[in-house]
Amino acid sequence: MYSRLSLSWITSSWAIGLLLVFPVIAIIYQGLQPAGDLFQHLMDTVMWDYIRNTVLLILGVGVLSFAMAIPAAWFMAMCDIPGRKYLQWALMLPLAMPAYIVAGIYTELLDFAGPVQSVLRDLLGWQTARDYWFPNIRSLGGAIVIIASVLFPYLYLLARTSFLEQSVTLMQSAQLLGKTPLQAFWRISLPLARPAIAVGLSLIAMETLADFATVNFFAVNTLTRAVFDTWQGYGSLHAAAKISTLMLVVVVLLLALERFSRRKQKVFQKNMGQESARLLQMKPWQQWLAALFCWSLVVLGFLFPFSMLIYFAAQYFTDSWTTEFIEFSLNTFFIAGVVAVLACLIAILVGLFRRLHVQRGSDIPARLSSMGYAVPGTVLAIGILIPFGWLDHSLNDLIEHFGGKGPGLLFSGTMLALIAGYLVRFTAIAVGAVESSINKIPPSLDMVSRTLGHSPVKMVRKVHIPLISKGCFTAILLVFIESMKELPAALILRPFNFETLATYVYQFVSDEMIEQGALAAIVIILVGLVPLIILSRSIEQH
Amino acid sequence: MKKSFILASVVLSSVLASTSSWAATEEVNVYSYRQSFLIEPIMAKFTEETGVKVNIVFAKDGLIERLEREGKLSPADLVLTTDISRSVELVEKDLVQPVQSEALEGNIPAQYRDPADQWFALTTRVRNVYSSKERLGKQPELNYEDLADAKFKGKICTRSGKHPYNVALISSMIAANGEAKTKQWLEGVKANLARKPQGNDRDQVKAIKEGFCDVSLGNNYYLGKMLNDEKQVAWANAVEINFPNQANRGTHVNISGVSLTKFAPNKDNAVKLMEFLSDDTAQKIYAEVNFEYPVKPGVAVSELVSSWGEFKSDSIPLAEIAKQRPVALKLLDEVKFDL
Amino acid sequence: MSALVISNVHCSYNGLDILSDMSVTLEDNEILCLLGSSGCGKTTLLKAIAGLLPLKSGEITINGKVVNKTGFHLPPEQRKIGMIFQDYALFPHMTVMDNVVFGIDELPKKEQQTRAQQVLDLVNLSEFSERYPHQLSGGQQQRVAIARALAYQPDLMLLDEPFSNIDSQVRLKLIAEIRQILKKAGVSAVFVTHSKEEAFAFADKLAVLDQGSIVQVGTPDELYLRPATRFVADFLGGGNYLPATVIDEHHVNTPLGRVCSTVAHHKSDATSYDIFIRPQQISLTANDAGAGVVSDVQFLGASSKVYVKLAQQEFECQVAQHFTTQQVVDLAVEPHELILFDKQSA
């Protein structure tokens, strides 16, 4: 329905959309500048190795996540395995674990000096590392296992929902036409879930591409490291921006895959009535095996690392419970809170703009403000610094031109840079959450309120805002959690004397002193659990 | 919507207020490549003596880039570096200014400061070769060049070749032996590596203890730190510390340095801090707490460090070595040292 | 040999009894309809036959092969059953042809083709074989589902509310069509519905279900003419209940006067019953001195439904003539085979 919106609303929607996409443009612009011989030198020497490692990492994580998530999702959707009620949400828990923390813990455990190898040595009488072979966790393979074990729930969630939404009668039909449950899975369930699986895998691929801390810790040279090394080592922002642009291309490809799959999903998902009697019959030993499989995923990605953290935190509590720790926690909560609220406000602004201002292109501000999500934090930080530095200099020059005293680094040297970085990266989450709850409001409500004499603004206040308040809450929560976890952007953008819990923990992890960062890690994880609990509640109620 | 705009502006202004610029109190802002806990005791002493507050931003990477970007608006007064190449980079990028100070000139011998007074070394640190006590013993005859020798096949451990400490060592090799020979050497070393370059210098010593390798590269002060760490003392006890190239040009020595930024807003306090850092109190802490070699003549090294004995250091000027840095980085890529 | 024998089947779900003591037999080439309101257990029984639900006790035999008995449950994929679901359950990612050969993909390619062609011809969809399900109308989708089931050459066909998603305009035509297809293919079928019109049009044999048990089994006309309980009588089309006292083998006395039966009713004399009279068995005549007053008229086309008030009771009548409200009429009951129920205890 067409509504005449005030000019200020229209302009602010577009302005915010453009502002949030500016860092991306800045990187591409910077990447298109000639970078001299350096980029050529990199292409001639190491670049292909970086690319190969990145591709291998993404492929490896994808395949392993698939092998973990798909069986789990199918068991959860189709079978009555022991402990199903708990597993259903326990399988989401690994999402709350930052990969680099898990990496730190497993390194502690599986390293030469760690308990596993020590026990093996004691048992078998080995002395040094030369006496036996043990897989090195600090390797590409190790990174794949660690990253997959915390990212697979993305795929699990999407695939499970897709399996549940598939009409039960399809599976029953296949069975009645003489196919075993396993055959029916391969021929019906899996092909039908393909769009959802593609979405899940592309999400996982993007997260993997963006990972900095884990690959750095494991000395796996991927493109994120290439950006960092080129920028820091060679001091060339141009070449770094060029590599970043390369990564953006990968991201765009993944996004296209995701969009394409979602579109296809609409054709396929013709849900015809839920039924409760969907459970597949399994023999008891099969059920226990399936349960064991699912629980081992939970243990690997959450229970074990989390209990280790609790153990460390208890041991080092007095060392960890410092004024510093409290200060950093407050910092983190404050900044994450500000970002969450702002992101939600932006999402409401552009979301309602899209709804009310029915015109070609009215969805562009929302799309623009979501672009930053896919940009890896390291790359994004560069994209923030470019325009913010320019703004600072222009502003100061201007003020000094009129004889005043410039305010200094108002943008790039304060928390503003950090907030902007988080906003660019996480507004997409808020836009998604708010948009989906706006879409749930039937258009007839708009028509009713308008015919009952309400102006668009009044309608928004009295009808839309109350109806989307739940979506807004979800948006705030999700952005809050992501902002708490974000590491690479914070490492580069944080102001003087400023640590977030994530940078604080990472410092300990990279120095292999994870014991002392355990308490802070626990805080990050516990806060990250909140949305999972809410999410699983809403799934259960469904 | 009005309400939310008001809310947003309140939030924004509170953010600004809480981070508002460096107020007029006496202070000095430091960008530090050195771990802050290493220098905090020294800074605390400085504040105690002068009443000037010290703000530190520590980062392993990116401070120079940040300084460059901030330009004349930068709040930073001093940059603390951990190796010569960073110090030279600061000069090359025109981010620092000369300091004429009698105190600095008195405290720091000429070879440890920039002829143009744009950087000053505060300590020196040696790039040692550690060897397994059990399997190799002390190696007094060893040269860096020998690490490419086939006899070390599968026996060498090191951190990333791109780490500034290694880059500086490789630069010194280029300065001494030329580019082509150094490339050959790097290929040789790479072929001898027991595992992909990873971790930090301490990890390599740990790896020797655990039997992954027999030799590693590492700075001298790490051994001191490990010997004083309950958990790591066992690693340290598994290795001997060696000073390579004693029969020829001498062992490669790096510095940790300080520079005054070009647009330092608190210049007076900053110079005061520089002088403090080069003076007895601070130099002593560097020596005692951090096991480095103080630059100020007359300040004694720690007992432990002196027990490792006298040694001859590489005579090639640091500025010459720093010049080879781009070449070193290029060679590292060409031989895919880290990959 | 019977196509399907169900004996003493019990079924429970979450501790609740859904089916209790069900028994019914289906002969070869016969179509059985399970009729009942929602929640009566008809779909549950269908799924139990298909093996999609476990039984608590009882036995099911399909074509002489025991598929369920105590301690034995043949998995659905081994039962040779064709099932048509309410939503047709066509595989959305496969063409019509792929759907049809899904159940016979272990046969040689050539045979798959001929058999698919046969069944698609049978359901008149040969030219649609390369289309996807979402490109077909509801009726076409349903015929694909039937073709898919027939290609599998099932021993028994199960249809779960197959016509509920079909437009009422074409429903009866489609029912006739599909009944013919099944008869031509010579398959026995069990079919579930809540609509008596569908049941009458489709079934050879009818089983009326209520609260998990079978109330009555028989041919459609048997059940319509001789309902065993009030429930069956009501379910197969409403009517009027009024008290009746037996006069003799062929006559009873009612508030509408003496009613004559065309067959002997074998009830003892002078006892009281409730007589059930269908609307079309009452005839009306305009009579100013009549006892009834027309309270409402519903025009149905060929006939009208007329509600007549007489002595506190409203009678539902279906007649060919036209009446207007407030008209005064006389009511009479045509002679027919009487339906008498025992008096309901208050």
Automatic annotation (TrEMBL), chain A:
Record-linked CDD domains: TM_PBP2
* Short name of one Pfam family: BPD_transp_1
User: Which SUPFAM superfamilies does the record match to this protein?
Assistant: MetI-like
Where do transmembrane segments lie in this chain? Answer: 7-30, 50-74, 86-106, 140-159, 196-219, 239-257, 288-313, 333-353, 373-390, 410-434, 517-535
Q: Where in the cell is it found?
A: Cell membrane
| Topological relation to the membrane, as annotated | Multi-pass membrane protein
Tell me the superkingdom of the source: Bacteria
Domain ABC transmembrane type-1 spans what residues?
A: 51-259, 329-535
Report keywords, A-Z. Answer: Cell membrane, Membrane, Transmembrane, Transmembrane helix, Transport
Q: Which InterPro entries match?
A: MetI-like (IPR000515), MetI-like_sf (IPR035906)
Presence of keyword RNA-binding:
no
Location (main, coarse): membrane
UniProt lists the family membership as follows: Belongs to the binding-protein-dependent transport system permease family.
What is the protein name given in its UniProt record? Iron ABC transporter permease
The scientific name of the source species is Motilimonas cestriensis
From TrEMBL, chain B:
Listed A to Z, the keywords are: Signal
The UniProt similarity line reads:
Belongs to the bacterial solute-binding protein 1 family.
Instruction: Note the Pfam families from the entry.
Output: SBP_bac_6
Show the taxonomic lineage: Bacteria, Pseudomonadati, Pseudomonadota, Gammaproteobacteria, Alteromonadales
Q: Where would one find the signal peptide in this protein?
A: 1-23
- Asked if the Swiss-Prot or TrEMBL record annotates the protein with the keyword Signal, the reply is yes
Q: Its domain of life? A: Bacteria
Q: Which InterPro entries does this chain map to? A: Ferric-bd
Answer whether the UniProt record assigns the keyword Signal to this protein.
yes
**Name of protein:** Fe(3+) ABC transporter substrate-binding protein
From TrEMBL, chain C:
The reply to whether Membrane figures as a keyword in the UniProt entry is: yes
Source organism, top-level taxon: Bacteria
Q: Is DNA-binding among this UniProt entry's keywords?
A: no
Q: What residues does the ABC transporter domain cover?
A: 4-236
- What CDD domains is this protein classified in? ABC_Carb_Solutes_like (cd03259)
List the molecular function annotations (GO) for this entry: ATP binding
**Which UniProt keywords are given for this protein, alphabetically ordered?**
ATP-binding, Cell membrane, Ion transport, Iron, Iron transport, Membrane, Nucleotide-binding, Transport
What name is this protein filed under?
Answer: ABC transporter ATP-binding protein
Organism of this sequence:
Motilimonas cestriensis
Task: Read off the lineage from the record.
Answer: Bacteria, Pseudomonadati, Pseudomonadota, Gammaproteobacteria, Alteromonadales
